[in-house]
Design brief:
alpha+beta, seven-stranded mixed β-sheet, twelve-stranded antiparallel β-sheet, 8 helices, Rossmann fold
Length: about 375
């Protein structure tokens, strides 16, 4: 009898082992030209339910990520916001700081946020808590905020309390945003001359109240370095925890800039990166009559139902879209899906998608000259004739 029990136990154990595959290897993840993080990655694949259970560890042994996937490329290390095309998250997903503090906790269904999401600062203070729905959008998507959103500062002050519906705030307020303003060197020499205007929208990290943070990258970085432009350049600052689509700020901003400065209103251009890329798509859809051309870069497009339902408003808008194919912060498909919907309808549509470039694509575009030359070829008076 004992032999029978032993044999049955061995059979059960063997079947259990065969139903799961466990792999451990070291993932080299570059974070800059001169620095690389080496993560110890443990992958357990359950053949029975087709799920990958993945854990990543910092070099000091502290866990960095724990998540479950229905499809998984072991060589990819994506940002938690990005559901990379080859990595489909399913269920609970968590990340930690190197000091052991929990960084984020969220839930996914088929690669989309669904349910409660929480984020923390490295000091242990809760940063934000939000509610999400999976949302069915054409093509890829990350889900949409739907319900309560709370945001705190690092010292624990509640700075944001709002309710959203499919990505948009239910009761937006009329407000004004601070901004950086650049004028060409000859601006004061001829008081009658008007100038083209570029409105530049920054990404997520410079949000807040310190305008100096905008000089970190993008067009403000270029002006800070002393570069001269034949444009007036206005760079507003988005408040902490908010998006460019949260409140009604743009009309007040646009009125102030165009009344206070000598702007050629037929040559107003809009561009932005990441959070600002999303904002560019949104504002151009909401105010298509304001812009002669737009250049959205590396931004989400599926997080707001309004954008998805009103993309047809951009069929006459000259658009030069940018997105790196190996972007691990905002997946490439977020721009591709919108471009594909406009193809064949918009005759002034360009899409630059470098195959070996990630979320830092803006460092290749804004320091160059081609985008600015392209902007100047467009005039709102001839937009619908092209």
């Amino acid at each position: 009898m004992k032999n029978i029990i032993l044999i049955l136990s061995l059979i059960i154990f063997t079947c259990s082992v065969q139903a799961q595959e466990v792999e451990t290897f070291y993932l080299h993840h570059p974070i800059s030209k001169n620095d690389t993080i080496i993560y110890k990655r443990i992958i357990r694949f359950d053949k029975k339910n087709g799920i990958y259970y993945v854990r990543d560890y910092f070099e000091n042994g502290q866990i960095q990520m724990q998540g479950t996937y229905s499809s998984f490329n072991k060589n990819l290390k994506e940002n938690y916001w990005c559901n990379y095309s080859k990595n489909t998250k399913q269920g609970l997903y968590q990340t930690w700081y190197k000091n052991g503090q929990l960084e984020s906790r969220s839930n996914f269904i088929d690669g989309k946020f669904h349910g409660q999401m929480e984020e923390w600062y490295s000091n242990g203070q809760l940063s934000q808590r939000s509610q999400w729905i999976k949302a069915d959008v054409e093509g890829n998507g990350k889900g949409q905020m739907n319900g309560s959103y709370l945001g705190w500062s690092k010292d624990g002050e509640l700075v944001c309390d709002m309710v959203l519906e499919k990505g948009l705030k239910k009761n937006p307020i009329d407000t004004n945003y601070k901004y950086l303003l650049y004028t060409p060197p000859e601006y004061e020499l001829d008081t009658l001359k008007t100038y083209p205007l570029i409105i530049y929208l920054h990404g997520g990290s410079p949000r807040g109240t310190d305008l100096n943070r905008l000089y970190a990258y993008g067009i403000p970085d270029q002006t800070y370095r002393g570069r001269e432009f034949p444009f007036i350049i206005a760079s507003p600052q988005c408040p902490l925890h908010l998006r460019w689509s949260t409140d009604n700020w743009f009309e007040n901003f646009f009125e102030e800039i165009t009344l206070k400065y000598r702007v050629n209103i037929n040559k107003v251009y809009l561009t932005g990166v990441s959070l600002g890329g999303s904002g560019t798509w949104y504002l151009a859809t909401k105010y298509p009559d304001k812009f002669a051309a737009i250049a959205p870069m590396s931004g989400f497009t599926s997080h707001i139902e309004y954008l998805d339902q009103n993309i047809e408003k951009l069929v006459d808008m000259p658009i030069w879209a940018f997105h790196g194919k190996i972007d691990k912060v905002v997946q490439f498909e977020e721009t591709q899906r919108v471009v594909q919907r406009l193809e064949g309808k918009n005759n002034n549509l360009k899409f630059t998608m470098p195959p070996n470039v990630g979320h830092g694509l803006h460092w290749l575009i804004y320091p160059g000259q081609e985008l600015y030359d392209w902007f100047l070829t467009h005039d709102k008076r001839t937009k619908n004739k092209n």
